[in-house]
Amino acid sequence: MRNTFVVPFVLVACAALGHAACSSDTPVDNTVKDSGTTDTGSGDDTITIGVNLALTGTGAPAGQPAQQGTRVAQQQINSLGGVLGKKVVFEIVDDRTDNAVTKSVFEGFFGRKLPVVLGPSASGQAIEGQNQAKAAGFPLISPSASTPVTTLAEPAKDRFFFRTAPSHALQAKAIAIRLFKGIGKATPPGDAGAGDGGAPSAGACRKMVVIAQDDAYGNPIAAGITETMKALGAEAPTVIKVASAPAASYDAQVAELIAAKADCQVVASFPAVGTVYMRAFRKATATDTSRDWSTFVSMGSNAMKNADALISARDNPADPQSASSMEGMYLMNFDLSPKTPQANEFKNVFDVTVGSDPKADLPGYSANQYDAAILAVLAIQRAGTTTDGTKIRDALFEVSRPPGAAYSPAKLADALVALRGGADIDYDGASGPVNFDDYGEVLANFVVFRVQTGAFAEIKEAGLTPDDLK
Predict the structure, then answer these.
(1) pLDDT value for 185
(2) What's the Cα-to-Cα distance from 248 to each of 58, 76, 285, 343, 456, rounded to whole Å?
(3) Is the N end or the C end of the chain the one with fewer CB atoms within 10 Å?
(4) How confident is the model at residue 216, as a pLDDT?
(5) End-to-end Cα separation, the chain, in angstroms
């Protein structure tokens, strides 16, 4: 069957041409491709898994590292003989972080009845993907779409949407717990590194303002923070909504925050909005004498923990020494580079395959996408089919969690052998345990960073484990 949608990135070509061919600035052929697969997603010698990622647009910081994780998974799987006796092809499409393109991509993948589809990168496209996966009866695994709307959109167990990154609901809970318990005295602007270094202290936040982007990203985080703060015994935060596009002025929002007399604020937005808002906040509080602003804590959500945010936060983006609106700000994100044996195993394979610096951290979401790809293949092997979506869905639950014997990325060959022999397995992933609960969700460690002299510095004492979030 011939595709009816644009396929600007096909992983087979990337593997053949090398890493440079997969870079975001490489010219691509936007013509329609013929994958050589049948409607079942399987040719005589291959099994095709669809991959819908944001390689361009606002979701690219998540989608591009995920593309690398897919490449590593494909090479490793096929070096071990593939699955069900066939090579595996991960067919990657750039959805451009665009809802209309995403809809077309999913229609193509699910219309071809591919056994598993991976993606999308962004929350805005997850609901569309979930609807189509449910209608088609084949599983969809996202490495980074975190909207909690998908969690209860399908019943427990009888569902087709999974993800290998924690939802915004869990992030919101982590932010609220960390701030409620205290995160230390804030560094005054222009005095980076002062104070107590960011260690948790008695400076707990009981009265909070949430600056929330008014969309599928910011609203669920604001709602989750509100719910958790109330459950902890604090008053409900003041939620100030801002548009998803940068505004000319945030003076009104900052004035509302000052009037609220809060202990802290959370900025739940993308950098294009958050850095501009923080600039207005810094300017207004620099001359406000109603309180001592040096003790006020500002925390950004995971989207603000981004290298592009550090650049756009500078008064002069081209000058690394320029003053930053984010200086002294805390950022919360789940741990994209966990220091575990499983993550180290993946890092070794990643560095060899991609040619990256062994001393560098894993690029964000590469491990989450790798785990999604490996789980997809293990589930197909467990189910013994590429055409029964429900059986593959059920197998995803089985291969991801106890009571089976545990297998890590370095033991993938043994895991495949065990499955071929009919044994139960529990895949422990590069991004974490990736034990799917009955709603296809995973837990994770959360880490806190602080912007110091224009760079992110991890505040290890402020991290949270899954046990902290139960």
Answers:
(1) 54
(2) 20, 49, 18, 43, 27
(3) C
(4) 82
(5) 47
207-217 pLDDT, tens digit each:
999 999 998 88
pLDDT reported for residue 30: 30
Residue type, 425: I
Residue-range domains of the chain with CATH: 11-165+365-427 (3.40.50.2300), 169-335+445-469 (3.40.50.2300)
CA distance 345 to 341: 6
DSSP structure string for 56-110: SSTTHHHHHHHHHHHHHHHHHHHHTT-BTTBEEEEEEEE-TT-HHHHHHHHHHHH
Residue in 442, 395, 388 with CA at minimum distance from that of residue 415: 395
Q: State pTM to two decimals.
A: 0.79
Rounded Cα–Cα distance for residues 103 and 108 (Å): 9
By the 8 A CB rule, do 232 and 219 touch?
no
Sign of CA dihedral 447, 171, 379, 351: negative
Number of H helices, E strands in the chain: 13, 14
Q: For residues 394 and 383, is the Cβ–Cβ distance under 8 A?
A: yes
**What is the CB neighbour count within 10 angstroms for residue 56?**
17
Beta-carbon contacts of residue 309 (< 8 Å; ≥ 6 apart)? 271, 274, 275, 300, 326
CA distance 250 to 235: 25
pLDDT digits (tens, 9 = 90+) for 363-389: 889 999 999 999 999 999 999 999 999
AA identity, residue 237: P
SS3 content of the chain, % helix, strand, coil (to 5): 40, 15, 45
And the tokens for 380? 């197909």
> Residue 324 carries which DSSP code?
B
Cα separations (Å) of 215 from 88, 199, 278? Answer: 37, 32, 19
Phi first, then psi: give them for residue 407, nearest 5 degrees. Answer: -135, 135
